[in-house]
Amino acid sequence: MKRDERALVGLPLRLVVYIIVVALVVPIAWSSAQAYSRRTTENSIEYEINYLERMISHIYIYHEDTRRVEVDFPSGFMADLEWVEIGGGENDPWSKLSTIRYKMSYTDVRTVVISEPNIPVTHFNNGESQPLRLGEGQYTLYLENLEDDSFLNGTRSVEVSLL
User: Fold this and answer.
1) pLDDT truncated to tens, each residue of the chain (163 aa)?
2) What is the total count of domains within the chain?
3) How many CB atoms lie within 10 A of CB 107?
4) Structural domain of residue 97, as residue ranges?
5) 22 SS3 class
6) Hey, is 48 helix, strand or coil?
7) What is the value of pTM for the model shown?
C-alpha cells in the first residue's frame, strides 16, 4: 500500500510539471510555425513578382508586341497577402510607374523596382491609366508593349491587364 500512497501524493506534482512544460513549449512551437509560414509565403510571392518583372523587361527590351503571363500569389497558413499593385497611373510619379508593390498582413509595403532598364508599367481601366491591384490567387495577365504611349508623352511603356 505504501507505493500507492506515494503515487497518489506525487500525481498532482507531476501534473503541474507537465502543465508548465506544455505552457513553455506551445508558444515557442506556435511562433516557429508562424515564422516559417510567413517566410515561405513571402518567398513564393517574391518569386512570382520577380518572374513578372523579368517578363515585363523581356517584352520591353525585345520589342515584343504582347505576352501572356501566368502568376499565382499564394496565401500561407498563418500569413495573408493583402494586395499586389503593379505599375502606376497617369498622375503618379515616375518612380511609382516602374514598381511592383505588395503588402502582407504583418509587414509594411514592399517594393520591387523594375530596373535595367527602368520600365513604366500601367493598367488602363475605362481609358484611365492606373495601377493594377490584385489579391491572392491565380491570374493570367496580358502584357502589351506600348511603343508610342500617349499617357507618357510618347515614352515607351508596358500595359498590364487581366485576361
Assistant:
1) 456 666 666 778 888 889 999 999 999 999 998 888 888 999 999 999 999 999 999 999 988 889 999 999 988 777 789 999 999 887 777 778 889 999 988 789 999 988 878 888 888 888 888 899 999 999 999 999 887 666 566 678 888 999 8
2) 1
3) 12
4) 2-162
5) helix
6) helix
7) 0.81
